[in-house]
Every structure is written in C-alpha cells, then in structure tokens.
Write a structure and sequence with these properties.
CATH architecture: Up-down Bundle
Number of helices: 9
Radius of gyration: 17 Å
Shape: globular
Distance between the termini: 36 Å
CATH superfamily: Cytochrome c/b562
Structural class: mainly alpha
Low-confidence stretches: 1-5, 12-21, 128-159
Number of strands: 0
Helix content: 55-70%
CATH class: Mainly Alpha
Largest sheet: none
C-alpha cells in the first residue's frame, strides 16, 4: 500500500523549474543554483521511496542525504554574500534582511539531512509500525502522529531545542525526510522569489 508523505507543492514546483532559472547565471550565483538543483533532484528521487511507491532502499536514502549535507549548512550560507541578489538569482532581499533566520534554516537543513542519513537504516514508519505490532502484540509505541517538534523534545511552552542529527537515530527515515522537505519549503517561502 502506498503511503502518503506530504511534499509541499512549493518544493515540487521548485524542482520542475530549477533548470530554467540557470539561464545567464555565472559565478557564485550559478554555484548556489547548481547546489539547490542538486538538492531538489535528491528530494525528487526520494519522494516515491518515502511514499512507499517504490521499494525502500536505505543506500539511496543515504546517497541523497549526502547530496543535501554537501550543499546545506555553512556551504549554502557561504554562497549568499551580500550583493548577489537580483536576476538571474531567485533569492529575495529577505535573505540578507533576515540573515540570522536564513542561516538558522540552512543549518537546520543540514542537521535534518544528517539525521535522515542516520535514520536510513530504520526504514519507513509503516514498516516500524508493523515491526512494533509484531513484537509488542499490537502495541504502537512509535512516534506516529507526533510532529517533528514533538518527537525532538519541544516543550509545551514552545521552547526551541537544538536540533542534532542523533535525534533521528530511532526515527523512521520518512519522518526525517518530512523534516528535510518542510525545511526546504519554509526556506523557499521566505527567501525565494516565485517563478512566473
């Protein structure tokens, strides 16, 4: 049975038009566009796996995670020096106006990708539920139904917890993937111009 993993439509749209945006890009702008395109292709390759539409392959998950890790965090941040907005770049002025938030999201993306790599061996949540049911006589002790923040130790007062890759050690890979996709989407919504 195919599972439903929600991939934000903003992210899907980005994947489809990323190649068109590279026309005329050079230097650091082209370098960051190439990195974003590589990450978009990694997400696109993982989507059917995480939805259960194709057979789960932990090595493919790890490989895609490596692409994300390579291009996220400090690497991504370094490709956005002040003054590199404007055409052909899709970066909004908000990148530099809200530099701290942009940097935080970039670093979170890397942590989530590292977590996805660690979680790759755990399989999908559906598999984890079936294994728990078999081992526990029908008990469901997984994190199903929790938000990523709940599963990572966020408290009722909304205090933020430092995200580390190790937090994903026992999570299903699709939970980690959802965090990656949501982070990409949040960044695009705040910091990337919409395509015409």
């Amino acid at each position: 049975m195919a599972k439903k993993i929600l991939i934000p439509s903003v992210l899907i749209a980005f994947i489809g038009v990323a190649a068109m945006a590279h026309n005329g890009a050079t230097g650091i702008v082209k370098e960051r566009m190439d990195g974003m395109s590589a990450m978009g292709k990694a997400v696109k390759a993982l989507t059917p796996i995480m939805r259960g539409a194709v057979e789960y392959d932990a090595d493919k998950v790890r490989s895609a995670a490596d692409v994300m890790i390579k291009h996220a965090g400090e690497q991504m941040i370094s490709l956005f020096p002040e003054g590199t907005g404007g055409m052909p770049s899709s970066a909004l002025p908000a990148v530099w106006d809200n530099w701290e938030e942009f940097s935080k999201i970039s670093n979170e993306l890397k942590a989530y990708a590292e977590g996805m790599k660690i979680a790759a061996g755990n399989g999908l949540a559906e598999d984890a539920v079936e294994q728990d049911d078999a081992m526990m006589g029908g008990s469901n002790d997984t994190m199903m139904g929790e938000t990523t923040e709940d599963a990572m130790g966020g408290d009722a007062m909304g205090a933020e917890t430092m995200i580390t890759a190790e937090m994903f050690a026992t999570m299903p890979a699709d939970t980690a993937f959802a965090s990656v996709a949501q982070t990409c989407s949040a960044c695009h919504q705040k910091f990337r111009a919409k395509e015409n």
